[in-house]
Amino acid sequence: MSTATTPVGTEAMHALFAPGSIALVGATDKSGWSVSTFDNLRASGFSGPVHLVNPRTEVVHGQCAHRSLTEIGEPVDMAYVMVPTTAVLSVLREGAGLGIRSYVVLTAGFGETGPEGLRLEEEILDFARGHGLTVLGPNGNGYINATAGTTPYGLPIPPPLIGGPVGVVLQSGALASSLLGFAQARNVGLSLLTSMGNETMVSVTDVIDYLVDDPATKVIALFVESVRRPREFARVARRAARAGKPIVALKIGSSSLASHTAQAHTGALVGDDAVVDAAFRKLGVVRVRSLEDLIITAGLLAQTGPVRGRRIGVVTPSGGACEVIADRAEQEGLTLPPFAPGTVARLKEILPDFATVQNPLDVTGYVVVDRTLLSRALEVVADDPGVDAVILLSDLPRLPPADLALTLEHFTATARRIREARRPVIVTSNVLTDITEVGRQVQREAGFPYVAGGIEHAMTAIGAAVRWSRTLRESPRPESVAGVGAPVVRAETTGVWAEHRAARLLADNGVPVVPSALAVTEDEAVAAAADLGYPVVLKAVADGLGHKSDIGGVRLGLDGPEAVREAHREVCADLHGRGLSGVATLVQPERHGGVELLVGVVRDPAWGLTMAVGLGGVWVEVLRDSALRLLPADPEEIRAALGELRGARLLEGARGTEPADLDRVAEVVARIGRLAEELGPGLESLEVNPLLVRGSEVEALDALVTWN
Amino acid sequence: MSTATTPVGTEAMHALFAPGSIALVGATDKSGWSVSTFDNLRASGFSGPVHLVNPRTEVVHGQCAHRSLTEIGEPVDMAYVMVPTTAVLSVLREGAGLGIRSYVVLTAGFGETGPEGLRLEEEILDFARGHGLTVLGPNGNGYINATAGTTPYGLPIPPPLIGGPVGVVLQSGALASSLLGFAQARNVGLSLLTSMGNETMVSVTDVIDYLVDDPATKVIALFVESVRRPREFARVARRAARAGKPIVALKIGSSSLASHTAQAHTGALVGDDAVVDAAFRKLGVVRVRSLEDLIITAGLLAQTGPVRGRRIGVVTPSGGACEVIADRAEQEGLTLPPFAPGTVARLKEILPDFATVQNPLDVTGYVVVDRTLLSRALEVVADDPGVDAVILLSDLPRLPPADLALTLEHFTATARRIREARRPVIVTSNVLTDITEVGRQVQREAGFPYVAGGIEHAMTAIGAAVRWSRTLRESPRPESVAGVGAPVVRAETTGVWAEHRAARLLADNGVPVVPSALAVTEDEAVAAAADLGYPVVLKAVADGLGHKSDIGGVRLGLDGPEAVREAHREVCADLHGRGLSGVATLVQPERHGGVELLVGVVRDPAWGLTMAVGLGGVWVEVLRDSALRLLPADPEEIRAALGELRGARLLEGARGTEPADLDRVAEVVARIGRLAEELGPGLESLEVNPLLVRGSEVEALDALVTWN
């Protein structure tokens, strides 16, 4: 599948999504896609002309058809193309001649089928570029612009089409319909839904760019199989963050990239999926794990915007629900703080005697007797100074109530209390069932806010909203320092730099490294040991030698000249025996105690330099316990990454180790990351393993650098 | 809250759930509960008489009311009691005199409110027991017997009430309505739904017992806040398993029990929630984590029964959905094996050229052109010898289709292919939206099977079904060996037995223990060391001394007589200095290498003896990496538990350790468990830490036993 690399301009995107007239080329009663597209445009109230083009049939969809675009005889803004694969290019040619700038190509059979299809697809791209055309697809169902009521979309749109704040972009045709149906069932209004197809020209990032500018869109929801243009994605994600518009993404497909850094341990730690996690975190993209969470989280964020903090007050009519919410809150990192004394006192006045006044609050089954109990309690809890937001558990009616007016009155009163509350109120239903027609009516007529669908998914969404809000509050990170620094590099940057060269590179560039001396002769080794202080460690050095411990090239606990002499002799003999050149040993003082970290930087083919930090030993080898960050990463980000490690408690002094000075550790690790960036595109990987931490003393004991 | 301890008899439960006539005592137009109960009985078509009792009103709910139960003047099978709290007992008195055996008490204000309420509740229990009455509640909304159409239930039941195979038992009133609504939205039929209330007499386990016998019930769904009678629960869960009826449970509330074994490390590992996990696993109870999963999983198990294995074929009309399913399958431990060559060949004949024939299968968007594509592909995949079950992704219509007959024809054909398929077929929809009226009609009229709601929850349910099926296939475990064995015990079983006594106990009862000798004098210590072989370890011994390492009471690496002498002198002096009696040292040969395990048994107040196994060191101290099993646990269960550990790979020889003989390890650990059981109720905890594993050599290096 070919992929465009140039962003499509803003004006072209606007023209694509807001045509005044549309021609359906290849329209026929025999095609479900044609029928759907035509019906959709009619049902959504598209006000411009819809021309049908079919060279062989006079009447299509009950309307006179034209034999060609040319025969339409009046200006057309957009062509929706359903002709056979090989005929698509000629439609573009004809359209270009007539001044038609925008195209949606539903036709399949291109890059997704093989080399011949790919060739046809590239022809289309070349032609479109050469003639200033904008092409969405091919192999995509088109789009639904619900804001404008423009729906050139090849699958049925079940009524009602609800306009609203969520823009949806999908790399899947079939699931677009599912998400559309689900959004409707949640009464989540959409601004635009786009089924991308092959992204030959218009790509996901182009549509995001458009949605960032689109005043109707408050939240962007993505379904992506792969991020095809990571750099562009990063750019538009940053734009969205600056505009305060959250991007919520369901990124699927966990096939792992081939390990691209065989020399470094880090390679195995950097799975495709984990890098995507790191990238999304860096860019403030909210990652969700199911189709349901995609819409429910997007809907919630459209309602709440940023949430001030993670302290949540909970108001429900059910003790069971309170416990379900408490369990889920813990999992999502939310806290349910005790109510302030004033809140407790006020609640006691309202609630029946047998109610237990606590957070989460169960106002009891007496809501059956007094329907206002819940919203009066809400009013009080929303005044509590100790909470950042309030969850109100409330179901919309599913069936038309006996007395609709009474129901509307009740929901209107509650809606008013929610609007006037001093903290944001998040309404959630108990379980995930559809908001039915009467539910939508109540929301519309009572001005009742968004209802997150079911405690389970609502809590996922609230957790995501709180984390996103925190990201938003953090100071913006620099995008990159690459090319800024001028690192000291003393040798030719090719191949593998084993310990002695790698250590020098680190030391030259401000990373603390254990003292060491290179010894070619036994005497040099002994002199170095005396100089550094016994006991010492002696390590094998030779050209191109990577993992020296695999060949027994590390000798520990050498406590005198004879031991050093013997070790040097043996190690060098072994290296010579293997036919290696540049043979020597590296002498270092032996270190004891502390906690060993691994810091590895690799170049991810998609996202660029990625840093893994982890604890050494079993932590990495058995547990794969590491945290990833895309570079650049400042010390604050590094501290957060260290905090994510399962073994984080070791750094805090568990098992009697000296507590690490985490500020110092983060500073050194960040320095390693900056160095990796400064080393430029020639760097393939840089690994410090171990980085020894003893209190505030942090030093690299070993390192490996690979150039490409 | 008082809790009954005696199971209610089968006949009494049948009488409770199948009354021929019902009296609503305390019926009034002013109470929503009364209105709902009356309306429910009428709407569900309860065929017997419904008498209303109100001493002060002549007409209630448009029907003549009686002043008292007595005034009804004809036999009544069940009284539904809604009178004030203090009047409940007199209703029971009157009813008992009239021969009314069954009661549902909706009235609240009992044990849940405090001591006075508890006293009233106990009075009711005493009276009911004394007079052979059956009482459900108080403080519960009653039940819905959908099989019989008998619905004495105090909250609205939204139509339609769908009868079916799932029995629901809830320790929550408010959530019962949510689950009812959700089951309806999933078109999952219920046999019985019971809102338990305070479980004064009839408890969750009584209802489970009833459901195990109930021919209409195939699956039991539980919502529980606490398992109030664990022993009874275990008994009925085993009955359910024998009957092949899965129990699916949402157990909420993660408040942790106080650590009840301060002397043993194990205490901290045994959280309330983890023990529930272990208990449910042992009993074959499927634990789910959300209200949605409770119903969706129960509905699935009712449809499929046991599933043969975890190899799943997937048939969808969407590439995106395939990837979502593949991601989730991996998380659930399901495999999607490649199709057999014969399957591939047959699929290629059916599918369009551009389709990729693989598992998971996307039959492509050409389903729009040929609606039979999906079910014809299903037929082929269900023949594949390498799969145990097939997932078919298919949505029911949500809105009435233009041509209902055509739709019914299509679904009827698909339903036939599903029925005739050679592997069980699990139908799942893309997203979790309601099955609407037309969807229910299609299922009913086309005989279309259960549709699991949305890929996300469906995959959770399939994973649970596969795991439950595996449990069912395993040979039944013995319920307990307690009291069977007669262990050798050489001292008084009180207080804390530190190492030397605990080690003797283990050795006497078939657990391999490192050789050791108790030394009171220096000479004895030296003689013992010579006997055992240098280097040795020397450990402090004194009456009541628990964690000796905390006081520096362990000396390692003693490589000669002088070192032993000095260490013995120092250790004993220190112990005397602390005013301890029974001072001595324990001499052992020093062991090196291997993997250290921790094996701890504690007595959980609810579930009894519970064993934790884990790796020692950081694994336990930092990671809390342990796996729990309820005792008795056979070697096979122990092996499974060891396999769950994050550090499991260490036992397999990661990091250069000798691979452990897992059969031997499991045998020794199981022996420790059996010993704990044989020691009887006097045992509070037993901990072996470490149990050293070197290949097939397994021996306890230290142990601690606490008696209560």
UniProtKB/TrEMBL annotation, chains A, B:
Pfam families: ATP-grasp_5 (PF13549), CoA_binding_2 (PF13380), Ligase_CoA_2 (PF19045), Succ_CoA_lig (PF13607). Keywords: ATP-binding, Ligase, Nucleotide-binding. Transmembrane segments: none annotated. GO terms for molecular function: acetate-CoA ligase (ADP-forming) activity; ATP binding; metal ion binding. Residues 503-546 form the ATP-grasp domain. It comes from the Bacteria. This is Carboxylate--amine ligase.
